[in-house]
Amino acid sequence: MENQDQQLDELFGQYKAACPDVDPSANFMPQVWARIDARRKSEQGLMRWANSFATATGLLVLVLGVLLYRNPNPLPQRAYIEKLTDEISEDYFLDAAYVARAQPASWSSR
Amino acid sequence: MNADPSIVARAQSGDEAAFNELVGFCRKRVLSIVGRLIGKPEDVEDVAQDVFLRLYFSLNQLSNVELFDRWLYRLTVNASYDYMRKSKRRKESRMADLSEAQMIMADATAGGLKGKSDEKHSTQRDFVHWLLSGVSEEDRILLLLKEVEGLSIKELEEIYGANESALKVRLFRARQRVLKAFEKSKEVKEKDGESRSATG
């Protein structure tokens, strides 16, 4: 095992020597700047979008605030089901006018 | 590496000429480290550019310019790690797929090969990458930084922000795995040698 450890160390040493030194190409720096510019642009686009979104959200909040101020109680106090139950109550069905309106035409001809 | 702190400070304040100077000073070293970490010469420049891109956008987070070298090392490691994760080299090679080139390398480690220098180097690189394919990308980088780059545990601590014992345990386990693969390659080579002599 110790021998193998030593061989592995030698192998790592050989690996270091076997990796060629890559010289940077002539357009290494221009390419770095091109990538920086591309990222800057995409970040600016994202910022612009975020700003527009924030402005639109602010405006919406303002409009809703004005509407709420002008009509402070826009929603019914009672729940929809409660209101419906009131309207279609037993009394309402027994109302003569309602029955007359609701009865089929054949009944009235009799 | 030891970049001039005044240049780093100027680059931090947005001086593009200083950033150019900084890249010019560090790029050769970054290219070498990336080359040894990823082992694919054709992609080295691309990964090195990514390192400098990260450097440009993170330079203002560096609180102490004296720590620039460690900072750059960390960026280099992260960019190499991201590259390795993307390329998923590990899937390409498995223990069962020990190629002829790796067999030759096994011979070479035993002290036998006399071939063309470039070919030999390429084979050595492939063989080491094959050995390292049995460990995770993180451990592979850690092992290469320690064994090939020659960084000390203290330096690794600064780069990784991890404690000494955790790093030592990780390094030990990774090395053991590599040693096992090394042993296995030798066994395969021996078997192959026997079968060749039997057929020959």
Question: What's a concise summary of this model?
Answer:
The complex is a heterodimer of chains A (110) and B (200). Chain A contains six helices and no strands.
Can you walk me through this structure?
The complex is a heterodimer of chains A (110) and B (200). With 110 residues, chain A is mostly helical. Helices cover 77% and strands 0% of the residues of chain A. Chain A starts with a helix and ends with a helix. With 200 residues, chain B is mostly helical. Chain B is 74% helix and 0% strand. Chain B is built from nine helices and no strands. The interface between A and B is medium-sized, with 28 and 36 residues.
Give the SSE map:
The complex is a heterodimer of chains A (110) and B (200).
Chain A: H1 2-18, H2 28-70, H3 80-87, H4 90-94, H5 96-102, H6 105-109
Chain B: H1 5-12, H2 16-38, H3 44-58, H4 68-87, H5 100-109, H6 117-132, H7 137-147, H8 153-160, H9 164-199
Helix pairs in contact in B: 1-2, 2-3, 2-4, 3-4, 4-8, 5-6, 5-9, 7-9
Instruction: List how many beta strands of chain A DSSP finds.
Output: 0
Number of helices of chain A: 6
- The separation of the N and C termini of chain B measures 54 Å
Percentage of residues in helical conformation of chain A: over 70%
- Helix and strand pattern of chain A: HHHHHH
Describe the sheet with the most strands of chain B. none
Q: State the secondary-structure class of chain B.
A: mainly alpha
Rounded mean pLDDT of chain B is: 83
What fraction of the residues of chain A are assigned to beta strands by DSSP?
Answer: under 5%
Properties at a glance:
heterodimer, A: 110 residues, mainly alpha, B: 200 residues
